[in-house]
């Protein structure tokens, strides 16, 4: 009984190693691509200077995206707690939150943060 289990296990290990070796040989060409072998796949040439200028507009858009993403995380529990809390307290909290959100958006719009090309 133990002999059969050992033979079957050994056969499974050998088959698995054979399949892995076959896959490695078959897909070796795609692994040797210059872009895939570079440490960064972000579109920047890793051999160029690391002090290249970076557009501040990309940074501002990323920060705005994070802010609105966090605000969505705050809004979702407001919807779930609408039946638990008193309606007036929930309504005032939601209106206050949306007013702060809209005032921040208006402030960013007036300062020209949302304008991509001037």
From TrEMBL:
It is a multi-pass membrane protein. One of its GO terms (cellular component) is NADH dehydrogenase complex. Gene3D superfamilies: NADH:ubiquinone/plastoquinone oxidoreductase, chain 3 (1.20.58.1610). It is found in: Membrane; Mitochondrion membrane. InterPro entries: NADH_UbQ/plastoQ_OxRdtase_su3, NDAH_ubi_oxred_su3_sf. It holds the Pfam family Oxidored_q4. The chain crosses the membrane at residues 6-27, 58-80, 86-107. Its EC number is 7.1.1.2. Keywords: Electron transport, Membrane, Mitochondrion, NAD, Respiratory chain, Translocase, Transmembrane, Transmembrane helix, Transport, Ubiquinone. One of its GO terms (molecular function) is NADH dehydrogenase (ubiquinone) activity. The keyword Transport applies. This is NADH-ubiquinone oxidoreductase chain 3.
